[in-house]
From TrEMBL:
Keywords: DNA-binding, Sigma factor, Transcription, Transcription regulation. Belongs to the sigma-70 factor family. ECF subfamily. Pfam families: Sigma70_r2, Sigma70_r4_2. It comes from uncultured Thermoleophilia bacterium. This is RNA polymerase ECF-type sigma factor.
Amino acid sequence: MALPGVTNGKAPARPSLEDAAGFADAYRTHSKAILIFLARRTYDPETALDLTAETFARAYAGRRRFRGTSHDELAAWLFAIARHVLARFLRRGVAERRALTRLGIEVPSLEPDDLARVVELAGLADLRLAAAQGFSMLSAKEREAVRLRVVEELPYGDVARRLDISVPTARARVSRGLRALAGVLGHRPLTQETSA
């Protein structure tokens, strides 16, 4: 399986998503950057591939709403969709599959070499190491609060009950822990991040 966006086709002078060729050009031009963007935020190549497919499925479904006239506007529009897809995934814990199913898009599975390539492109090994180191630097109380809220995806009320603390205290611990992790990982702008 070829990774999306690795073949860089020539994009038309003015982006058009109205026909299959225009949409295919948009995919070839932007899918690699979106895949890397999502992989760096999920730390999981397969999830990133699923979310990339969903991003382009939503873009295809809404292609008539794109009013931009430049490739920068097209990239911004696609990244806005990717951010929305990511936010929804993070809120619900799973990627929405309805658009893919409705459009009949089958998500390709990654071979081990492809997984390794996504990990390399997105620099996930370094990010995972930094996240693990940052997590170990949290206080035990913050670490447990973050684990319950983020890893186990428990609501704050359940986190508070498990830790025998108030909900505001649970929120504060999670917030402090996530701020500390963000400081260790460094904030990356929500834009294209390709150097490979």
